[in-house]
Write a structure and sequence with these properties.
Blueprint lengths: L5 E6 L3 H8 L15 E8 L7 H9 L7 E10 L3 E4 L5 H16 L14 E4 L8 E10 L1 E8 L4 E9 L5
Antiparallel strand pairs: 1-2, 1-7, 3-4, 3-6, 4-5, 7-8
């Protein structure tokens, strides 16, 4: 089964970080800044999921109480796509991901995929074969998380909710 409407919990860059990312020569200028994101947890494909799964995830996220955390990327890497990454451990982001999965599991939220990918920002899905390069650090504090459905093949995100993190203004 090919993914059609995958559901993710993600963080979006601040406006300042978006501007820095868009200014990168290797960023795909055809994609809008509103699509830039860091996937924190991949949940399931809404196309194949029972209708009660989405409300169950939303209900679980309604009780989230977690601290804001920093993200910063200082490298561009070309794997299957061009991404912003770092060699730093991103300990706070990884701790947040683990706590988020625990929170969802404790509330019996459905998580077929349940993966916590290495935090990164994809800036060009086509890849450019230019290899890796160091860049000035681009970072922000993640102050909210979003529940987003990606419409595969349509370059579209459908937001299903936002939740502020503790310590966010």
């Amino acid at each position: 089964m090919r993914a059609r409407n995958p559901l993710y919990i993600m963080a979006k860059p601040s406006h300042e970080a978006q501007a820095q990312i868009i200014a990168l020569a290797r960023n795909d200028p055809g994609r809008g800044a509103d699509l830039l994101h860091v996937t924190l947890v991949s949940l399931f494909d809404l196309h194949y999921a029972p209708p009660e799964w989405l409300p169950a995830v939303i209900a679980a996220l309604d009780s989230i109480d977690a601290p804001a955390f920093p993200l910063a990327f200082d490298r561009i890497e070309n794997r299957k796509a061009v991404t912003l990454r770092t060699r730093a451990p991103l300990a706070e982001a990884r701790a947040f991901q683990a706590a988020l999965v625990r929170h969802l599991l404790e509330r019996k939220a459905p998580m077929m995929l349940g993966t916590t990918p290495e935090p990164h920002v994809t800036i060009n899905y086509r890849g450019d074969r230019l290899g890796s390069q160091k860049i000035a650090s681009i970072g922000w504090t993640v102050e909210e998380i979003l529940l987003v459905e990606s419409i595969v093949g349509q370059t579209t995100h459908v937001e299903h909710g936002r939740w502020r993190l503790r310590g966010a203004d």
